Amino acid sequence: MDLSTRYLGLNLRNPLVASASPLSKTVDGVRRLADAGVGAVVLYSLFEEQVRREARQNARLAEAGTDSFAESLSYFPEGTGVDHGPRRYLSLLERAAEAVAIPVIGSINASTPGSWAGYARSIQDCGAAAVELNVYLLPGDAHLSGRDVEQRHLDILARVKDAVTIPVAVKLSPYFSATADMARRLDLAGADGLVLFNRFLQPDIDTETLAVAPGILLSRAAEVRLPLTWITLLHGRIGASLAATTGVEGPVELIKYLLGGADVVMTASALLRHGPDYAAVLLDGLRHWMSRKGYAAINDFRGLLAVPIGTDEAAHERVNYVSALRQANSGDYGPW
């Protein structure tokens, strides 16, 4: 049985990808994920805030050294308080890429164009097979227009694409006024892949302490529907690879995404909830289903339930919407 697939122009042994999470913060963690069978690993993210902090600290040290020996400007001694987060990240990436035979993808979590070119190039030089741009931007500024938000994504992509030769994927939020158009524009701008979707981590309110309570909730299977909607609509309509993420709890969600047209399916929540070895359970479930259905390879059924090319997409979704309401009005609310 052939589970192989292509993502970002890379040949993967199967379509299950471990997305960025604490599981990939160590070389041992990356190795455990690879041993469990995943097709690729996205390293935990290097955050824009870390890069900014290091740049500020380096600038202060350089300024402080202007009255010292010239040689002191070429290095930063240990114990000076410099944030070595980005350097640790690059070291981990280099060691992880050497430790496993599957692709290791570097991840940058950004909200502004910034000075990403140098870091993206360093990620490439350390052995990353690709770069994932995790654009996490909640546009709470009432003066920031939708077009400005879209342009910021394109600007971040342009900075990184100019700096590297390895593939670049963009991880998007689902909350664009015209998601398909944004996908098309990123595709035309050179994105090698789109990851659908990022999850905004909405805060809660603690009514006893009267405080905002930020926290992370692992995704559940019901959340598969939003990314699945757009995967089925974009399959075959853009050249960029499509990675589905969010809501993968078991083999069923993995299979649904592939039927919708995803090139790969990413998960963090299922692996965090059940452990890295759960990857084998997901892949075994996929193999068993393929055997029952008579499919010998992923390409035999990928995109089977995508929206057909030539369909009026808006009319198609409207029909689904009306059908769902009629079903609900008849008292059939589906499984609880």
From TrEMBL:
Lineage summary: Bacteria, Bacillati, Actinomycetota, Actinomycetes, Mycobacteriales
GO-annotated cellular components: cytoplasm
The protein's name in its UniProt record: Dihydroorotate dehydrogenase
Presence of keyword DNA-binding: no
InterPro entries registered for this protein in UniProt: Aldolase_TIM, DHO_dehydrogenase, Dihydroorotate_DH_1_2, Dihydroorotate_DH_cat
BP GO terms, sorted: 'de novo' pyrimidine nucleobase biosynthetic process; 'de novo' UMP biosynthetic process
Keywords associated with the record: Flavoprotein, FMN, Oxidoreductase, Pyrimidine biosynthesis
Pathway where this protein functions: Pyrimidine metabolism; UMP biosynthesis via de novo pathway
Keyword Calcium: no
Superkingdom assignment: Bacteria
Dihydroorotate dehydrogenase catalytic domain mapped to chain residues: 3-290
Cofactor(s) it depends on: FMN
GO MF annotation, one: dihydroorotate dehydrogenase activity
Organism, as annotated: Mycolicibacterium vanbaalenii (strain DSM 7251 / JCM 13017 / BCRC 16820 / KCTC 9966 / NRRL B-24157 / PYR-1)
